[in-house]
Amino acid sequence: MIVPMIKYGFLVYHRDFDSFLGRLQDMGMVDIEKHTKALSEEERSLMNEINRYSQTLKDLKIRASQLDQVPQGSPLDSDAVIVEFDNLIKEKEQVDNSLRKAQKDLNDVRPWGSFSIDLLNKINNSGLKIRFFVTNEKAFNESTLGDFTIEVINNEAGQIYFVWIQENSEATLPFDAVEVKAPTYSASGKEAEIASLKGHSHEIDNRLDELTYYIPQLEATKDELVNKLEINSVTLSADKQADEKVYVLQGWVPVPKNKEFVQFLEQESIIFVSEKAKREDNAPILLKNNKFARLFEPIGNLFTNPTYGELDLTPLFAPFFMMFFGFCLGDAGYGLVMLLGASLYKFKAKKEFRPILSLVQWLSLSTVIFGIITGTFFGIELVKVTIPFVAKFKSMFLDQNQLFALALIIGAIQIVFGMFVKAANQIRLWGWQYAISTFGWLLLIIGSAAFYGLSQLEEFNVEFMGLAHKITLGIAAIGILFFNSPGKNPFVNFGLGLWDSYNMVTGLFGDILSYIRLFALGLSSAILGNVFNSLAFGMAPDIPVVGAIVTIIILVAGHSINLFMAALGSLVHPMRLTFVEFYKNAGFVGGGKTYQPFHKKNKQTI
Questions:
Q1: What count of other Cβ atoms lies within 10 Å of the Cβ of residue 586?
Q2: Contacts (Cβ under 8 Å, ≥6 apart) of 42
Q3: How far apart are CA 438 and CA 280, in angstroms?
Q4: CA 557 – CA 554 distance, rounded (Å)
Q5: Contacts of 215 (CB under 8 A, 6+ apart)
Q6: What is the pLDDT of residue 604?
Q7: Which residues are 7's β-sheet partners?
Q8: What one-character-per-residue DSSP string does 340-387 give?
Q9: How far apart are CA 262 and CA 271, in angstroms?
Q10: Looking at 426-532, which runs of residues are DSSP E strands?
Q11: DSSP designation for 139
Q12: Residue 41 in contact with residue 290, Cβ under 8 Å?
C-alpha cells in the first residue's frame, strides 16, 4: 500500500534558516519539494568533488578487496589523499607506458645480444662501417662470403642475424639480406631499465595499497560533501519573501511519523501549516507492504511508482509473478538447486542483499511446485520413469495440452482480476460512475463465461445466448456504450464506446494469447534439459572412469547453461506480462516520484 502523506509549509526567519535545515536534516523525515533550476557554480563544484571522491573510493575498494590485510597509515587530510592518489595513478600510467616501450625495445634488440654501444661507436669512427642484417637461413651461404668480414650473431626461428664490418663502401653482399637500423642500446641495458621500471611500479602499487587505509575517512568526507550539496539545493529551493527576511519551504512527511514531527516543530517554535495530501498534489510515494509483497517491490520499481492516490499493485501482482516464474522454469531439479543455493548463501550474505535471496527462495519454491505438476526433474520426464514411487503420481502430471490450456486460463484470470483492480482504482480516484463501463465489461466477460459453462452441464437447464444471457449482455452494453465518459453527451459516449469496444476486443484476445509464452518457455527449458541428458550419456566413451567423468562434465555444464538461460527468461517474460498485460488492464497510471527524505548521508532513514 501507499503510505499517506502530510503536506507541510514552513515559514522560517532568515537568520534561523541554516540551523533549522541542519536539525531537519538530522531528523531525516521530510521530503523537501525542490524547484527545477539551473545548477549554481557552488553546486557544480560540489558535484565534481563528490564524483572525484566516488571514483577514488571505487578504485581503492577494488584494491582493498584484493588485500589480505589493510595496511596501517599515518594521519592525512582527505583532500591530500585524493591528490596523492591522482598523482600516483598518473605516475603509474607513465611508468607502465615506459615499461611497455622498453619491453618492445628489448624484443627488438634481444637477437643481437649484449654489446657495448661505446665500442660500436669507436669502430665506426675508426673508418670501418658496421652494418646489421637479417636474412633467411636458406639464403645465407658462408661459401660465397670470401673476403667479407661477417659475424653471425644469432640464429633464431629460421632467421640469421649477422653484422658486416665493411671496409669497401662499394662492396655488396653476395646474397639477399635486409639491413636493419643499428641498435642504439644493448639488451643488457634494456633489461636493467625494465627491472628499474618494474621496481618503481611496485613501489607505486605498494603506496596505493597503503591508501586503502583511508577508505572510511574518505567515505565520511564524501558524505559531508553530499550533505552540504543537499543543504545548498534545499536553500536554493526556498521561496524568499518579505525582502528575503522570511524563507518558505514545502515538504512531505509520512503519516506514521507525523506526530513525532509535529512535536519537533513545536519545540523549534517553527510556524507551519499542514494538510493531508490530495491526489492532485503529486505527493512522493512510500510503499509499505507485508513481508511477502515487500520482496517484489524492486521488481515493480523497475517500471515506475504508482501515482499518489492509486492502488499499489505490488501485493496484487506478486502471487502471479511468483506463479509465472515457476511456470516458465518448471523443473523441480532446477528449483531445488536455486532454493538450496539461496538458502545457504543467505547465512553469510549482507543484510541489504538478504531480501533478494528471500525472493529467490519464493521463486524457487514455485519452480519446484510446477516441476512436480509437469513431472520434470533436471530435464527427465518423470512420466517415462519406471520407479515405483514415481509411478504413484504419474496420473497427477499434466501433459502439454493441459499446460497450454492452463497458461491461457491463468492469463484470463489475471486479466479479469486486473479489470476489477481498474474498477477499484477508478472509484478511488474519480468516483463510482467512472467504473460503470469497466463493470460492464466484467459483466459481459464473466456472465458469458458463466452462461457458456452452465450450458455445457446437463443438470442445469441453461441456454447459451438465451433470454437471461441476452438481458445480461444488454445491461453490460448500456454500461460500456453510454457510461464510458461520465458527463459527456450520450451520442459522444456511444461513439467513444464503439471505438473502445473495438480496442478492447482486439486487445483482450491479444493479451490472453500473450500468456502462451508461459507454456512455451516451460516446454523449451524441459526440452533443452532433456537434450543435455541425451548428450551426456550418448557422447560418453565406454571407458569406465573416463566415461563417468565426461558424463558428469556435460551434465553440469549443460544444465548450468540451461538453468541460467531459463531463469533469465523466467524473470524477463513474467515482467513483460506484469508491466504490459496486467498493468494495462488494471488501468495503471504510474509516474509517481519516490519518497526521498532530506537526511544526512550517513544516517539511517525510514
A1: 25
A2: 232
A3: 23
A4: 5
A5: 57, 60, 61, 64, 70
A6: 47
A7: 252, 275
A8: HHHHHHTTTS-GGGHHHHHHHHHHHHHHHHHHHHHTEETTEEGGG---
A9: 11
A10: none
A11: T
A12: no
Cα 249–chain centre separation: 36
Rg of the Cα atoms in the chain = 38
**Cα–Cα distance, 235 to 232 (Å, whole number):** 5
Percent of the chain with pLDDT over 90: 13
Sequence letter at residue 239: D
**Cell numbers linked to 74:** 599515518
Distances (CA, A) of 43 to 34, 39, 184, 427: 14, 6, 54, 44
Question: Position of cell 596505493?
Answer: 208
Please name the residues in contact with 269: beta carbons below 8 A apart, sequence gap of 6 or more.
none
Give the burial string for 490-507 (b: 16+ CB within 10 Å, else e): eeebeebbeebbeebeee
Cell of 136: 633467411
Q: What is the mean pLDDT of the chain?
A: 83
What pLDDT is recorded for position 362? 94
Name the amino acid, one letter, at 20: F
Beta-bridge partners for 287: 2
Structure-block grid coordinates of residue 281: 498534489
Q: Assign 200 to helix, strand or coil.
A: helix
Residue that has been written with the C-alpha cell 519452480 in this structure:
367
C-alpha cell read off for 101: 616501450
Would you place residue 8 in the very low, low, confident or very high pLDDT band (cuts 50, 70, 90)?
confident
Helix (H, G, I), strand (E, B) or coil at 421: helix
CA distance 219 to 64: 14
pLDDT digits (tens, 9 = 90+) for 362-412: 999 999 999 888 888 888 887 777 777 666 777 778 888 888 999 999 998
Confidence class of residue 335 from pLDDT cuts 50, 70 and 90?
very high
For residue 289, the tally of other CB atoms under 10 A from its CB is: 17
Distance CA 534, CA 513 (A): 32
Contact (Cβ atoms closer than 8 angstroms) between residue 584 and residue 511: yes
Beta-bridged to residue 239, according to DSSP, are 248
Cell of 81: 589523499
Per the document, the length of the chain is: 606
CA torsion sign for 556, 561, 564, 565 is: negative
Q: What secondary structure letter does DSSP report for 433? A: G
**All 3 cell numbers of residue 219?**
567515505
| Predicted TM-score (pTM) above 0.85 | no
3-state secondary structure of 108: helix
The residue to which cell 533550476 is assigned: 37
Strands (E), 117-231: 129-136, 150-156, 159-166, 178-180
Report in angstroms the alpha-carbon separations of 303 from 233, 309, 423, 553, 589.
27, 18, 22, 40, 11
- Contact (CB, 8 A) for 93 and 255: no
